[in-house]
Amino acid sequence: MTVWREPAVDIGNHGTTIILTNIRAQAKETLQSKEIWANYEESLFSPEKNEPISPPKYHIGKTQNLSQNQLETDLIADKSVPWDNEDEPKIAFEKLVNAVWLEASLGNQNPRLELIFDYYLQMIWNLSLATPLPYVNGNLFDLNLSDWVHAYLIANEPKGSAKPLQASDQTFREVLDLTEGKKTEQFDVFVDNLQLSRPIKYQELPTGGHRLKKPVALIGKCKQDFANINKAYSAGTLRFEAYLFWNPIIAPAEHRGVLIRVNGASGTLFDPTFLKYQVSEQVRLRQITCEIFVHEGFDSALNIDRESFNAAHPHAVYITRWLHGALRQLATAQKRLASEVRTEARDELQGQFADEIQNIALKTWQREVKDEDSFPPSVDVRSEATNDLLNNADIIINRPALRKKPKKANSAHSQMATERLKAIAQIIASFRLFEKLSPQEQQRLLNAIFDVLDANK
């Protein structure tokens, strides 16, 4: 590699432009989602398959041929992106993030990037997570406490409890003197027609079937000097800030976990195990996203690839213990809040699941999920004329996609089949089987079940 210096032509602007001129063929094929499109095209031209495999909902398109024997018009797929060509780069990226949360609002309880985006858009998303950028809709620390019903300060003591923060017109940053995310020199990252931001939102989120309809935010800050311990063993001072954010639904699913940032950047993705948290909180852990911002220390805990860290390093050990203590404080606070609304919610739940079929679904959910503060997901079977994008159901079944009803179908029999289908969908959700299926696979599964239930005697 040769490095040289040239005088600037435009001295009014500054920054770094990276131009890749020799990308490996394998990297190109990955970003083109070649494997995904190959599987899709194979399904189109395979007569033994009744239904073609669906490509990701959002993608940058496909323009290259995989076989000379196939027509070019059959191989070209126009791009499908959630923004318009006329959108400003910042607005375009906001629409990309909102598209993921829209999936959760439309009944996809487990929106995964690998099923929503092609490899290129996944790369954009992961890059936006890794860089020290502003948040797409604002930093949590810059939100007013008056906007939060449930806000707490994390105790640093091993067996401490979270302290409620009083509502006020001040921000978390002002009340707790937080330094993470303070505005400094402008730093922007553009990739094609997108201005990247951290794709994490904290407000106006779907809540699903849970008693608590408002998020819970725990904020913490810590400085550990490791007094009376030789620096060779302690690695020096460790200082960090963090938040734990609970919401009944976290989207995308890849954001469930903890992300550690050193000086604003991260080489890792979210760790869904929360640094190997051993307490059985499987339901609650899927409802938490957490970021830890290290301002001093921890550099020596990073491995040479900077994509992982040494779990035995003193700083890593301390952060792990601190995080596990904070998770226990969050669980305690969230359970206390849920218990305050439990009686009213229980009466509502009993009325909703009054008949025998629905009661079976309720008992199955309570037994398998082991979270007395959550409801089975609501289910809606859409009629053929319905096109309600603002439907609040957790699971939406598109009836025309399931089965066209014969003209002489018995309406009572059909209604009973529909109610049974709803209960079966809730039972399937109790065992978390939908999380392993794409939306298309979910529809095909419910299609088969509905055909059995609604078959003429």
Outline of the structure:
With 457 residues, the chain is of the alpha/beta class. It has helices at 25-31, 34-44, 72-75, 89-105, 113-116, 119-130, 172-176, 231-234, 282-285, 314-340, 342-352, 356-369, 399-402, 411-430, 439-453, and strands spanning 150-153, 163-164, 190-191, 194-195, 216-224, 238-246, 257-262, 288-296, 379-382, 395-398.
Structure description:
By secondary structure, the chain is an alpha/beta fold. It is 35% helix and 11% strand. The chain contains 15 helices and 10 strands. It has helices spanning 25-31, 34-44, 72-75, 89-105, 113-116, 119-130, 172-176, 231-234, 282-285, 314-340, 342-352, 356-369, 399-402, 411-430, 439-453, and strands spanning 150-153, 163-164, 190-191, 194-195, 216-224, 238-246, 257-262, 288-296, 379-382, 395-398. The strands form 3 sheets. Strands 2-1-5-6-8-7 form a 6-stranded mixed sheet, covered by helices on one side. Strand 3 (190-191) and strand 4 form a beta hairpin. Helix 12 (356-369) packs parallel to helix 14 (411-430) and helix 14 packs across helix 15. It is globular. The termini are far apart. Mean pLDDT is 82; it is low at 71-75.
